[in-house]
Amino acid sequence: MKKIFLLAAVLFALSTPVFADYVYKSGVTASYYADKFHGRKTSNGEVFNMYALTAAHKTLPFNTVVKVTNLANGKSVTVRINDRGPFVKGREIDLSKAAAVKLDMIKSGTAKVKLTIVSSSTSSASAQKWKDPGSANKTWDIQLGAFTERKNAEALVKKLQAAGFRKYLAYQKSGKYTRVVIRDIATDDVQDYLDALEKKGFTDYFVRERAKIKKSPE
To answer: Are 147 and 43 spatial neighbours (Cβ–Cβ below 8 Å)?
Structure first.
């Protein structure tokens, strides 16, 4: 009986990821490795294989499994993080050539993508905080844009309001930028907001721990 119980517990642990199927970032840029990197060592000590479904990211833990969706054509691929990078400004993730082929982005070289965490190691500390047990009492802001001209921020606010996002909508002033955010979202509600935004076509955003609001729209 003890053996049966132990086996069941092990199978459950192996089948239950620490993080599962939640949007990490959307509207970010993906690129892919040049062929010359094939056979070189990655940051975690593996040999890079351009034909394997792997990727580089600056902060996600090694062995994190990420679903990458090309926002231009809806194609997706699941990759495993085994390297660090990309170290080019404005790029979020560097994909193997095999992954880039599946996303149909070879000709373009880069693509706007959505990153969804499928699973991560128990040592993960840098995946989205609203899924961490210690984040239950925190609140979050979803930033949807940052503009040097106030009128552009106001135009985005009007679009969001027309789409039904009126509650918690606010401006944040930071230096020369006016940011548009949905503010003060409870941990349990973040994913619902992200799902609703995507259904309305707002796919360019990122989530951060609650920041002080300077001014709200009237």
So the answer is: no
Report how far residue 190's alpha carbon sits from residue 195's, in angstroms, rounded to the nearest whole number.
9
- In 42-176, the DSSP E strands lie at 54-57, 65-70, 76-83, 91-95, 111-119, 139-147, 169-174
Reduced 3-state DSSP string for 96-127? CHHHHHHCCCCCCCCEEEEEEEEECCCCCCCC
In a domain, 103, yes or no: yes
Distance CA 141, CA 149 (A): 21
Position 191 in a domain: yes
Element (H, E) at 26: strand 22-32
On whether both 38 and 110 belong to a single domain, the answer is: yes
In the chain, helix, strand, coil percent, each to 5?
25, 35, 40
140 and 172 both lie in a single domain = yes
Same domain as 111, residue 24: yes
* Full-model pTM: 0.53
Provide the domain limits for residue 141: 134-209
Q: What is the pLDDT along the chain (218 residues), one digit of tens a residue?
A: 444 433 333 333 333 333 345 788 999 999 999 999 999 999 888 899 999 999 999 888 888 889 999 999 999 999 999 999 998 999 999 999 999 999 999 999 999 999 988 876 433 333 344 454 455 567 888 888 888 888 888 999 999 999 998 878 888 887 778 888 898 888 888 888 888 888 888 877 777 777 544 445 55
Residues 68, 25 within the same domain: yes
182, containing H or E segment: strand 177-186
